[in-house]
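Researcher: Can you fold this with magnesium ion in place?
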Amino acid sequence: MTKCIAFHSYKGGTGKSTISSNLSASLAKKGFTAVLLDVDVYAPSLQDYFQWEPKKSINDYLFENANVDEVIHDLSTLLNKFPSKNGEETNPSKGKLFVAFSSTSKDEIYKLDGAVRQEGSKIQLLRKFLMLREEIVSKYNADFIIIDTSPGIRYWSINSLAIADTILLSLKLDGIDLKGTRLLAKEIYESLTKLGTKSYLLLNRAAGYCLPPGQAGEKTSETQEIYSNIAGDQKTVISKLNADVGMDTILSIPCYCDIQFDSNEFLTALRYPNHPFAGNIDTLIEKLQEMKS
Ligand SMILES: Nc1ncnc2c1ncn2[C@@H]1O[C@H](COP(=O)(O)OP(=O)(O)O)[C@@H](O)[C@H]1O
Ligand SMILES: [Mg+2]
């Protein structure tokens, strides 16, 4: 059975695109069939991760009656370019990676934005979007459909959440994210949970990986004190948030400065399979599989 996972958040920059693209590629590397959809229609970014310029996009499927095969790009050969994790058996011949991109053309984005403001075309587009999911399930035999959405309360984000069976809400531990996460939980997730959708918090760019100030060379008592308070604070804040919104935290991924400060986006988990970020993606896969059984 196909598992459909949507990544969502209140704010932008919480790691939806990074985690969804690395997750999809790692699933395929492990032998699964993963179909990744870029439904962040106002700010598509997945082209960067896969270094791919699609001829046709999801927009063409929605508006121009393009066939599903024209907008779902088979990027499985990319997988063979990357090394395997030390000692791990991979199954590249079996694993499949498909990606559907959103158009980055300004005109296409305006067109989509205009169309969802008119009731008639809005419903028509929604029907096509549902059809896309059905076609992926029936034609691609996908183990996983993974959707990267826009942050906040947006038409296409809500549609994406509605067609998913699992939602991963990514957040950083800052005040706006915490407040926004509570808002999303109340306004959107509560009603989806009643319909059977499972939703989890995914903490990203959490404190913990960077060297404590003493080891990093800055030996002021203030920095030391702030640092030692952070980890304890995070635990308290998160367990309170879990209780308040009725959602568990599926995983907490630390902030890796090397990923944060690299000026390019790429598939860290595949390029550096022994990087601790890749380990986090593996843990996420294990947790998703546990849910599946
Ligand atoms: N765990 C992490 N550690 C460090 N940097 C990260 C991490 N996750 C994501 N990033 C970086 O944060 C930025 C925002 O991530 P992105 O995936 O684009 O967020 P979103 O899609 O939610 O807007 C990117 O530059 C990305 O490389
Ligand atoms: Mg993004």
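Model: Folded with magnesium ion in place. DSSP finds 14 helices and eight strands in the chain.
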